[in-house]
Every structure is written in structure tokens, then in C-alpha cells.
Fold:
Amino acid sequence: MTSPLRYVVPVAALCCAVPLFAQATDPARAPVQTLDEGLLAIMKGGSTLGTQGRIARIGPVVDQTFDIPLITRLSVGPDWVKVAPADQATLVTAMRRMTLAQYASNFSSYGGESFSIDPRIETRGTDKLVRTTLTAPKGDAVPIGYRLRQSGGKWKIIDVYYKNAISQLATRRADFASLFAKGGAKALIAHLDDLAAKGGR
Structure:
């Protein structure tokens, strides 16, 4: 398995508000469990599935567990209102394609890895924070946190925190602002397509 650091891009620390803890039966846990199971499935499928097979397998899992439209809008930030509706839709599609390709690339083989979910689920404002740990027989355990928000009555992931402190969303927002300033929505779309192509090889 390739290190998940390639997927989870570095960024800012978690919100410092005092958290409230929920029980393991909190419904926000279920999407993270589904994602963990999906990632293990494509890891075990490995070369038998191939890259495109892993993309096809993880696609429905990502659709079920992530709010890709909201992630895209939050990643673009205030510039989102400047983007034409057609380009907004293209950006969402490109974000999904990149997410699938990077998961298929980073979770491409199985060597006895496992995920565990912290039973203490934090409530932070209207969001939930679910912490997991990726453990391998060899190497250090990797903490990964997920921020979830309700969408259509369902909890969905809107951010990923590497080592429970490094926000993927915040880094993307900073990167996207620079790209948008230089080339607008077309530059963002090209950037996501390039990342998808690299991840999907």
C-alpha cells in the first residue's frame, strides 16, 4: 500500500473549540466505517482489480460517504460565486475523478493493514469529527480524522485530517486560490484533471 500522505494533503490544525463526545453508536461513524471497508476491499483486490477496477470499486463508496459538491465549493472558497454554473459542475466532476484516482493509487495493495475507529466521536458545532487509525504490520500507525456534516439527512465527509491535525480542505483552498487568480476555473479544472491522471496511472 502506498502511504496515504499522498492522498491527504497537509494543512491547518483542527478547530480549537471545546469538543463534545458522542458514543460509538453515533450515526456519523457509519460513513467512516463504510469508507474503511471500501479501502480495504480495493487494497485486497490490488493488481487483480487493476487501477481502473479499483476506481470502479471505490466510486460508489466515495459517492455514499463524501459530499463532493460541498468539498469542491469549500475548496474553491469565495471565488466559487465567480464561477459559471457549467464550470461549477465540471469542477465537481473533476474533484470526484481526482479523489477516486488517488484512492485507487494510494490503496493499491494489501499487506495486513487494518483500520480502527475511535469510539469517542466529537461534536464541533454542526459537524462531527471521527478519528481513525490505519495500522500496518510494519511501519508506524497513521491517525486519520474525518470531519462530517449532514447533507440530505445523511452524514457525509467534508474534510480529511492527516495525523488528526492536517486539513486537506484548508490546503486545497490555499492552492486553489493561487490557481484561480492565475487562470480562473479552467486552471482549477486542468489542475484536478492532471492530479487524476497522475493518480490513475
